[in-house]
Batch of 2 targets.
Target 1
Amino acid sequence: MQEGRSQKNLGLTKETNADAAILKLKSEGFSFREISKHLGKSLGSVTGRYYRLKGVRHPSQIMRDEELKKNRKLRRTTREKEKSMAAIQAAIELRRGVKLSVAIGKARTAGASFEMIGACCGVSKQALHKRWRQQCYETRAAAPRDR
């Protein structure tokens, strides 16, 4: 039992052997081209793997990551603004006399939460949800059923 356990823990995979070979050959002064020929791998895969193992990041990768992060933040901000605008629009529609279930339904479809809509209307999310739920049930009960 002990023997089987040690073999699992010490069993090296093909990838770790290749990684060790890349690091060893590079430390011995071989070029990436020589290493790729020796291992039978492409030059790009050996070069990329070496730099990933060493934790080296190129300026182009750093800039791309920064750009992705900036775009994600911009999309997140845009979504939050859209949700906020939907909540504000629901509050405006409710003051104009639009049916509660319609105004809340539009805002919820646009992604606004009951908390956001309630804040715009000046009520708690629980009170808003209670009124919305009651009106939805009343609407369903009043609607004729097709069978």
Target 2
Amino acid sequence: MKIRLACRGRDDHVSDFCGFFRARCHRSALLGDLLFRALVIGAAFLAASTLVGCGGGKSSQPARVSRTAKVWRVPALVDRSNVYAADAAGKLSRVVRRDPALVYVPNSLSNTVYVISQRTLKIVRRFPVETRPQHVVPAYDLKTLYVTSDLGNSLQPINPATGKRSGSPIPVADPYNLYFTPDGHYAITVAELLKRLDFRNPHTMRLAFSLPVPTCPGVDHADFSADGRYMYVSCEYLGAMIEIDLSRHRVIHTLNLTPKPASPQDVKLSPDGKILYVADQDRGGLWEIDARRFAVIGFLPTGKGAHGLYPSRDARVLYVSNRIAGTISVVSFATRQVMHTWSLGSSSPDMGGVSADGKTLWLSGRYNSEVYVIDTRTGRLRARIPVGSGPHGLSVWPQPGRYSLGHTGILR
């Protein structure tokens, strides 16, 4: 039976509800996470956007889009030569200084969040969340953490001052990931299945408008230019990147990554703002992209399944998790070369972050139901902490910085 909804109404909530309904309807027919991914990849290669049994293959239309030019007030960089200068060890904002040092682990297959003490390395709390939590994301103002549940079509707020859930889940269509514009005006939920970016009120998550990205199947991860005017987004299933002008809310460039296969994942800007590093799990390394020209200038092999990217607190190196190889590559920003490779043994290092003092790298073990605690001075694996099934985008909290751009903790 096909059901069609009138999703072109003027009310913001109508568009959001339609996206919510379509996501639920489509996903209820899936047999599991692997089947879901296979179907989406197949659709990308066929250049189609098919919603099984739900009708309507196109992304929802923008809800009452305002094209009025806004005045950008992105906070000035602390150091123009280093976008991460505000993220140095110990530079905690007054907002987060009293927050307990915890690690929040979303377990995608067991639909739970585990909370780990950074001091004792013990699990101090567990709580259930909606279906398939993907990432734990700090809000722009650093006062809330959000658990993004894409199959559950919701964001679960967490109070970082207590480490506990704060209120009920917020209904949001298909939130695989969550970002914030550098001026703090919008939250951006990454609706991977719906192939769109939803711009929302950063406090209430009420939908302002949607930006369809039909040419970016597998829209996943992102970072922003040094001046905050542009957003760079990976298209996992197409093997491409897109550049978005945030002042015009428009995709202005598409960069096809060749040769294939290519499967871009996490995205990070170099400290000087000149190079974008993009992890590619199929090619086992990092694409190097000139941020100004939006053109590939190199490729750096790191290891099979290159996935997550995390700058050190002194902004000298980039930690790369190689999920299939079970290793961490330490890349020098200055030389653009791999300095060290740390082996974790049997493991699947995925997403995570660096502790506030810079001494510890925390990563989820996606296929091993564990979390890895790594000494950044030596590369020694300090601990393996058993968690739920399918741990993914864990967040280390608190982190230094003045404001959050999203994901598991991109702060500036």
